[in-house]
Amino acid sequence: MLSRITRSMLGSNVGMLLKKPPHGLEGTSMSARTVNAIHTSECRRNDNDKDKDKKKKKSKSSALILHSFESVEHKEKEAFLDVLREYKKENEIRRGHVEFIQVALKYMDEFGVNRDLAVYKALLDVLPKGKFVPINYLQTLFMHYPKQQYVGIDLLCKMEDNSVIPDVEMQQMLLNIYGVQSIVLKKFWRMMYWMPKFSNLNPWPCSRPAPKDPRVLARIAVNKLSSIDVTSIVTEYRTKDVEDSTEDTWILSSMSNIQRELLQKQPISNPIYVEGPYSVWVADQCIDYFVLRGESRVKDVYRDLDDVTDIRIPFWDKREVIRPFSVHEQQDGTYFAMCATGTSSKNSLLSWIRCLQKQNPILNMIPVMFKLSSSIKDQLYIENTVRENEILQSYKE
Prior knowledge:
Keywords: Cytoplasm, Immunity, Innate immunity, Mitochondrion, Nucleus, Transit peptide. The protein has 397 residues and is an alpha+beta fold. The protein has helices at 2-19, 30-66, 77-90, 97-111, 117-124, 137-141, 146-161, 168-178, 183-198, 214-225, 257-264, 346-359, 385-396; strands at residues 233-238, 250-255, 272-282, 285-294, 329-330, 333-341, 368-372.
């Protein structure tokens, strides 16, 4: 009975709907209704296009900020921070923050802020807070927002490469951005454990920032190389004080009393060699140095003490006391001195030998040979293709 009443009510309502047109469409045909429908869909499409245009404009503005590092005239710390402030001001949603941090990390060395902890904090502050924090176990297991976490690891690796130790404030910033279960915090805790242990273990410390004067860097390098012998003395010479010198530069020479004694015992008939350049690092600067080397001393032949085939009575044997080997006598030769010059040229090395001759007169009798290797090798190539074809044809004939 109930189903019959329901069917009758639905049938009457359907009939009334078919007889009466909907409100607002009286006197309009089907074509007009379709036109209105198409018109509304076009309006919606236009609204979507407008939204897309706005997004494109915002993306363009963020792209311009990415290239603003290159357009800065004076590349210094304040200019770098100004670019960060401009990005935060123009991009409140922080769209493209991953790409922005990646570009900023590449330009830190050029702006000279790669060792500044405050700049790293300002760059880390670009990331939005709380959005990347996982809220359940699955998000933690599958590394919530991996691309953003990898950017944070890149920033910490940049700090580690430049020996910048983070502090407690950076830990709180990472907690607000990634949460306690992120791999970025694990990387931070490893850095906080190991970096303070190794920060003061360098036996040849260098001031920070490192000096730019090449003479100061060369003195640090020579002291570093000659520290194996505590009696080594570093002496500074000027090439203008040497007769017939064609250059005006400085020479830092290192020589100890043991090396002078070894040079006095050097046979006059055997030549000694000036070799180099070799490289040594002082902070982030590479310094070239040269050595004065002679032939190595022949060591005694090893004798087996357990061999009883030829028993000798040592009471009547006359043996010479063998002098122990010093740290300057190595397997590849005996090192008499080392130096670093301002130009690293052959003329400056010739002036260095003349300066050593005043304190070591035996150098006037020992022949000195120069074995220098050039760090720049010219590439031989043929620019003219016509000439190349002629040479190939001559070989074929």
